[in-house]
Amino acid sequence: MILDTLANSKKYHAVHPLFAAAFDYLSKQDLSSLEDGKYAIDGDKLVAAVFTKPAKTAEEANEKFECHDRHIDIQVCISGKESIGWKPREKCTQPKGSYNPEKDVSFYADAPQMYFGMEPGQFVILFPEDVHSPMIGEGALKKMVIKVLI
């Protein structure tokens, strides 16, 4: 997991071959005026989803404590204050159902090891080994999630 501000995003271009294109796309957007919806950045290799939804309690979010096998998430806070639960996959011991290859998601019944916060202008990069429960907070949260194909 990497947590930082968009102002520092160039530091992470070398981490994955598609990160430069993802962060370049982000730098060219007026995030606050983006409509909710899906945006193709580079075919199926880089796809962004923007959404505005009511925040969840930690208990509600932890019902979908999730991770992905074929994608890295770059999650960007656009408005609101969001908390995200996190735990390393290697320490998760309670699978909840089986892996869904169509949605590229696995769920766990484990509790997060920690929570961290994000405010507008911050992002988190979540790798397949990062089990996470996003959208914790109050009021409405607007965010962008870029799915980076591994």
TrEMBL record:
InterPro entries: NanQ/TabA/YiaL, NanQ/TabA/YiaL_sf. Pfam families: DUF386. Gene3D superfamilies: YhcH/YjgK/YiaL. One of its GO terms (cellular component) is cytosol. It comes from the Bacteria. This is YhcH/YjgK/YiaL family protein.
